[in-house]
Amino acid sequence: MQTRIAQYRKERKITQEELADAVNVTRQTIISLENGKYKASLVLAHKIAQFFGVTIEEMFIFDREDENL
Amino acid sequence: MQTRIAQYRKERKITQEELADAVNVTRQTIISLENGKYKASLVLAHKIAQFFGVTIEEMFIFDREDENL
DNA sequence: TCATAAAGTATAGTACACTTTACATTATTT
DNA sequence: AAATAATGTAAAGTGTACTATACTTTATGA
User: Fold this and answer.
1) What pLDDT digit, counting tens, does each position of A7-27 carry?
2) Contacts B43 to A, Cβ<8 Å
3) Is A41's CB less than 7 Å from nucleic acid strand C?
4) Using a CB-CB distance cutoff of 8 angstroms, which residues of chain A are in contact with residue B56?
5) What residues contact A31, with CB distance under 8 A and at least 6 apart?
């Protein structure tokens, strides 16, 4: 699964720490999401999408591998 | 967090088991989601929304309590 | 070039999404 | 009323999202 977190974040010149604070997770969580270490929970996905004013589907790119959970 | 899973499912006269099979989880997972025992993962949310042809945001209703993850 | 900000790595711990199996209750149909 | 379908409950196990802390590397800018 891919995300546009880093892309949107950089476009808006926001640091990982600022985003982390905004959605109330640790900086490590943002790093891990951006680097594909794991997938966001539904609520976190929603908060990040909301923060950037886009839908979850626009922020997170589901691919065929996501047949598994 | 609320969901419209049961609502959409009943509208289309689909059983929990049929939905479970369609999105490749167990029947217990569907029951638990419908009864608010826990929240879907992002990928499962996506698969359920896709199955019903709606967006994740339309299928899952985020409320203020969802400040936490 | 030196300081500092930003991004990254590592690791141990906790909570919970999801599975599996088995049994119980409630609806639906004949 | 009896059979069967559908929904529900319980409980133990696994994987992983996220935290916390501490340290390292890479960018940015005076």
Assistant:
1) 999 999 999 999 999 999 999
2) 1, 39, 62, 66, 68-69
3) yes
4) 42, 45-46, 55-57
5) A16, A37
Q: Is the CB of B15 under 7 A from strand D?
A: yes
Tens digit of each residue's pLDDT (9 = 90 or more) over B39-49: 999 999 999 99
Q: Which nucleotides of D are covered by protein (CB under 7 A)?
A: 5-11, 16-22
All structural domains of chain A: 2-67 (1.10.260.40)
> How is residue A40 written in tokens?
């966001």
Contact A24 B62 (CB under 8 A): no
The band of A67, judged by pLDDT with boundaries at 50, 70 and 90, is low
CB–CB of B69 and A43 under 8 A? Answer: yes
- Tell me what percent of chain B is helix, strand and coil, each rounded to the nearest 5: 60, 5, 30
pTM: 0.94
CB atoms inside a 10 Å sphere around CB B10 = 10
| Whole-number Å distance between alpha carbons of A33 and A60 | 10
